[in-house]
Amino acid sequence: MNQLIACEAKLTVREPVGLAFSLVLPLVIILAFGLSASASEPDEELGGVIALDTLLPSIGLALSFGMVAIFMLPGFMTDYRARGILRRLSTTPVHPAKLLAAQVIVQGAIALISVPLVLGLAVALGMSFPEQPLMVVVVVLLGGAALFAVGTLVSAVAPDAKIGYVYSAMFFFPSLFFAGVWLPKEQMPDWLSTIGDFTPLGAFRESLENAFTGTSQDPLMLLTLAVTAVAAGTVAARVFRWE
Amino acid sequence: MIAIEHLHKRYGDVVAVEDVSFTVEPNEIFGIIGTNGAGKTTTVECLTGVRTADGGRLVMLGLDPATQRDEIRRRVGVQLQSSHLPDRLSVREALQLYASFYEDPRDPDELIELLGLQHRAGARYGKLSGGEKQRVSVGLALVGRPQVAVLDELTTGLDPHARREVWTLIERLKLEGLTVILVSHFMDEVERLCDRVAVIHKGRVVALDTPSRLAAHGRLEDAFLELTTV
Amino acid sequence: MTTNLAIEASGLVKTFGELRAVDGVDLAVRRGSVYGVLGPNGAGKTTTIRMLATLLHPDGGSARILGHDIVAEADAVRSAVSLTGQMASVDEDLTGRENLILLGRLYGFKGKAAKDRADELLGAFGLEDAAGRLTKNYSGGMRRRLDIAASLVVTPELLFLDEPTTGLDPRSRNQVWDIVRALRTAGTTVLLCTQYLDEADQLADGIAVIDKGKVIAEGTPGQLKASVGSATLHVRLLQGDQRPQAETILARELGLVHLEPDPSALSVQCPEADKGAEAIAALGRAGVGVASFALGQPTLDEVFLALTGHTAEDKEEVKA
């Protein structure tokens, strides 16, 4: 198994474009917006909170986790399926599920690396240190599980990389909207904002924000993450096609 | 002990394998030839457990491919048509990875040399020629030091030198005790390597004998064409 | 300007960095002939073909295809030439007929003309029954035939065929060979790249063997075989266990005997037919039963191996 993980890690690093998007893009966004003065001051449009303390770092992490779990993971797995790699593996003593596990571990590690990178940059730019660091960890793990479960589901059903990309995009881009990345949630009508709370990416981002500011968590959002993780994961396990 | 009795497999309405029976002796190189779509690939897929049969009895090394796949996987190396590796993986890395799946694998570097790929050992799979990819594929089936190797399209796309290198490798492994089931289109290969060969046509075995008796003083290819006239 | 040569190449050179993949290749291919290009993988064969097909610019030398220079008149070359490779150039999600009609229309056939042309090709290639099925469901042989049909929608004057029967069973191979012969009869020039030397032997009027970027041998199959060695006497015995005896007798009569992989067969170099006949008679006198014997020229396989025999260390891969 270790050999498999090492192999997948090597292969992932050899695709620098995907890595760059997942790790560097969030940093670029935080840098671009975080440098402006208004980011460090209470923002009326956001209901009086400081963007750098709340919106920016949570968007950063939502992006990195989202891209790794929803694009990179399915990208690799669907490509492997289309090229007969999974089929080949099924003739060896190593079940292709182990390959999936190795990929999840590698991509998961990349996502976790983004946490200190994103938060580190934000703090350097003036973000107040998160009020509830332990809660941040909990949310990261729960949200990561939910997003990776969705990514695994996409990997399970898409026959090749092209279609996989379409499914990933269909989930990801609307999710970004509902999570308040294009338009701050404070400016959305209530019903729209509520829908967003029940999307995994939206729940993830909001819960992160709550942990940063010390606001108590909305149990429904945490539940959304847990339910997504379990439901998507179960369905994926059942329908995963190895060919 | 490898045996197939009255194998039957259909995909919906299409009967891929009507009724195929044969046994493979230990340490034998057993060839399977037939026209495209005759059921050759489906037969070996059922034998290795990749597909489930609809009828008939299958025994691979004394095991049931339907229920004892894990044990079969440890002892049978399979080279499939059209299955690839990640483009960015090098030849050596691929063989090392697959070697790690087995308890007593061959040395990947030794195998690389036997396959004539020493000068491409560090090259990434995506950059290999078709013939080189083919040889890597054969290597992956053999690196686990299997008791049985099931090979489909052993030398397709290889130039005459490479072909002979691979044939020599298989003959050498046979001396070490390997049993081979070889699906092939290439009559020269069948004549050179196979102890016996089965001709499958329209889902049935229409002939089973040594290549020279099958050829009966003529060419194996002519015998094949006669046996598979529509 | 018409010339009776379909391909004239002179001193073609192509380098990739430090590597001279093609190092001075000359070719002369008559119109209406089938010309085989053989060579080990990485020898410069594919690169040469690509230059001739105007897919690559030569770094040195020149070539004319059907009278047109490959660099200066590349468009003229492309419009008269068709290329098929191992990679099928048809769309898997269309039926065979749809693929051919699509190509027909791309080439300027209108409506009914495109349909007619498609039907014509389907008939010629024995694909009428499968015409309505999706290409992804075709067998290897059918797919290859469709691929060749696709490259003939507009009948080219020159067709490059790259390994057309790789992976096909003998029946399908023979069908493809018949197609190639029919093309030659109709006046198309065919440049055939293959790893199956008996294919080159059967089909080609002329052959060039390329190794290490140069043409190392050129001629008709007969000439190449004659250049490599003398004829060989092939003997097959009625009983394999008499082979040791047969070996002794033949060695005495003719020289070094080669034991064939087939346990009842042997072969030995035989410079003159008379001596061969005497050797067979000697076997008969000794009570060794002979099932068949033949005096044959070296196979093209033997020619190839003799010409290009070099160790693996010398081989280098070229990736264009």
TrEMBL record, chain A:
<feature type="transmembrane region" description="Helical">
    <location>
        <begin position="99"/>
        <end position="128"/>
    </location>
</feature>
<dbReference type="InterPro" id="IPR052902">
    <property type="entry name" value="ABC-2_transporter"/>
</dbReference>
<keyword id="KW-1133">Transmembrane helix</keyword>
<keyword id="KW-1003">Cell membrane</keyword>
<feature type="transmembrane region" description="Helical">
    <location>
        <begin position="220"/>
        <end position="240"/>
    </location>
</feature>
<keyword id="KW-0472">Membrane</keyword>
<keyword id="KW-0812">Transmembrane</keyword>
<protein>
    <recommendedName>
        <fullName>Transport permease protein</fullName>
    </recommendedName>
</protein>
<feature type="domain" description="ABC transmembrane type-2">
    <location>
        <begin position="17"/>
        <end position="243"/>
    </location>
</feature>
<comment type="similarity">
    <text>Belongs to the ABC-2 integral membrane protein family.</text>
</comment>
<keyword id="KW-0813">Transport</keyword>
<feature type="transmembrane region" description="Helical">
    <location>
        <begin position="59"/>
        <end position="78"/>
    </location>
</feature>
<dbReference type="InterPro" id="IPR013525">
    <property type="entry name" value="ABC2_TM"/>
</dbReference>
<feature type="transmembrane region" description="Helical">
    <location>
        <begin position="20"/>
        <end position="39"/>
    </location>
</feature>
<feature type="transmembrane region" description="Helical">
    <location>
        <begin position="165"/>
        <end position="183"/>
    </location>
</feature>
UniProtKB/TrEMBL annotation, chain B:
<dbReference type="Pfam" id="PF00005">
    <property type="entry name" value="ABC_tran"/>
</dbReference>
<keyword id="KW-0067">ATP-binding</keyword>
<dbReference type="InterPro" id="IPR017871">
    <property type="entry name" value="ABC_transporter-like_CS"/>
</dbReference>
<dbReference type="InterPro" id="IPR003439">
    <property type="entry name" value="ABC_transporter-like_ATP-bd"/>
</dbReference>
<dbReference type="InterPro" id="IPR027417">
    <property type="entry name" value="P-loop_NTPase"/>
</dbReference>
<keyword id="KW-0547">Nucleotide-binding</keyword>
<keyword id="KW-0046">Antibiotic resistance</keyword>
<dbReference type="GO" id="GO:0005524">
    <property type="term" value="F:ATP binding"/>
</dbReference>
<protein>
    <submittedName>
        <fullName>ABC transporter ATP-binding protein</fullName>
    </submittedName>
</protein>
<feature type="domain" description="ABC transporter">
    <location>
        <begin position="2"/>
        <end position="227"/>
    </location>
</feature>
<dbReference type="InterPro" id="IPR050763">
    <property type="entry name" value="ABC_transporter_ATP-binding"/>
</dbReference>
<keyword id="KW-0813">Transport</keyword>
<dbReference type="InterPro" id="IPR003593">
    <property type="entry name" value="AAA+_ATPase"/>
</dbReference>
From TrEMBL, chain C:
<feature type="domain" description="ABC transporter">
    <location>
        <begin position="7"/>
        <end position="237"/>
    </location>
</feature>
<keyword id="KW-0046">Antibiotic resistance</keyword>
<dbReference type="InterPro" id="IPR005894">
    <property type="entry name" value="DrrA"/>
</dbReference>
<keyword id="KW-1003">Cell membrane</keyword>
<dbReference type="InterPro" id="IPR017871">
    <property type="entry name" value="ABC_transporter-like_CS"/>
</dbReference>
<dbReference type="InterPro" id="IPR027417">
    <property type="entry name" value="P-loop_NTPase"/>
</dbReference>
<dbReference type="Pfam" id="PF00005">
    <property type="entry name" value="ABC_tran"/>
</dbReference>
<dbReference type="Pfam" id="PF13732">
    <property type="entry name" value="DrrA1-3_C"/>
</dbReference>
<keyword id="KW-1278">Translocase</keyword>
<dbReference type="InterPro" id="IPR050763">
    <property type="entry name" value="ABC_transporter_ATP-binding"/>
</dbReference>
<comment type="similarity">
    <text>Belongs to the ABC transporter superfamily. Drug exporter-1 (DrugE1) (TC 3.A.1.105) family.</text>
</comment>
<dbReference type="GO" id="GO:0005524">
    <property type="term" value="F:ATP binding"/>
</dbReference>
<dbReference type="InterPro" id="IPR003593">
    <property type="entry name" value="AAA+_ATPase"/>
</dbReference>
<keyword id="KW-0472">Membrane</keyword>
<keyword id="KW-0813">Transport</keyword>
